[in-house]
């Protein structure tokens, strides 16, 4: 036994024949074919879960959407409309003239008189009157410049030089804002600037002044202006 296991004794080991290998391959092929053909020849031998998966049918396709009632009605009415068209018995020799012009419009192709005829046709058709604009009533006196007010002065403004201002050698210009009424008299006046010793004399002289009434669209209106009173020592 030990002699057979040595290296030197390899030539004595018997090898198997090739017919044994061929028979083994044929046996294995038969076994595989049997495993493949058994499910087809004997389905009862398969597990129940495998049969259920094989016999399950795919879900049915979705049902087509229902057509609306009005669409079916329109489809059904189309053949009826086509069958209702009947050819005329007599065909006219000349086409009928249809007047499709808009009332009040001007046909530029038929008017042969030029621009004057077109304007006359437009005038006869009736043009709307121009809109009337009413002047809005003023909420206060109208503002005019001091030069315009001075040109409408009827009586000159002659202030009295105060004695105390003369002795103090005070001089200068007093600027007054005044409102002239519709009759031309000074209604309101206030001092804007000037020497304090001369403001009272300037207001007194302006109150006595008289102006020509200022007119707007032919009607007298109140105006507001600036009046300058000059005090100067000789």
Task: Give a verbal description of the structure.
- The structure is a single chain.
- This protein is of the alpha+beta class.
- Among the domains are: 1-54, no CATH class; 142-231, 2-Layer Sandwich (TolA/TonB C-terminal domain).
- It is built from seven helices and six strands, in the order ααααβααββαβββ.
- The strands form two sheets. Strands 1-6-2-3 form a four-stranded mixed β-sheet.
- The longest helix is centred in the first third of the chain and has 24 residues, at 18-41.
- It is elongated and about 165 Å long.
Question: What attributes does this structure have?
Answer:
7 helices; TolA/TonB C-terminal domain; alpha+beta; two-stranded antiparallel sheet; 234 residues; elongated; 4-stranded mixed beta sheet
